[in-house]
Amino acid sequence: MKDYKIITYQEAIKVIEEIGLLPLADLLPEYPSLNSMTSKESWHSDTEFDPWTWRTKFAADGVAAYGKFLKKKSILISRELLPCVRAVLGRQDSVNDRYKNGLISKEAMNLYHLIKENEGIDTRILRAEAGMKNKEKKKAFDQALVELQGTLDITISGIKEKQDANGEKNGWSSTSFETMSHWMEKNDVAMDWNLDNAKEKLRSHFSRVCTPESLKKVEKFFML
Question: Which of 9, 92, 180, 203 is the most exposed place for a label (fewest CB within 10 A)?
């Protein structure tokens, strides 16, 4: 596999389009991450070369879906590969049916419906709307969001800055979420739930871009 080294956002886009799946931090052996192919000095520099700001820009620009999709780790998935990954990791049955069958937590089901009713909702607002602002409910809230990302039901849509009454930035920015179906629809990404086709495309793609060592892990992740 290539030893990717990049400086600009446009260079990062080309890498995502080429390899299809890009973790923020190291996840697979002999496989790049956004962290490994950028300089440490550029992170949190609050400049146009800051990969920390790129991660949500990819999602906002429709370049790649972004979320904790694999092993509870933050991942970028290209538009081209996304339908295949969703077909393998996601589910076609509704969250309500999954809840009835004990396949999803009540918290996750409730959060999904709140996100669907308000696509792009700020995490702070979501937590308040869900009645989970209390400190003791934060863990359950975070786990439910990770649960929904792991099945690609939701995705991070961007970052919302916290502002004061004068519109000035005040405090930490927060993540916003939307349903994956909404993200795909607005970015003209067609979904195909054919599992056999999805696995074949993933197998073909990763056999081209992975080393034998990283391919073993990918095959395990996607049950290829």
Answer: 92
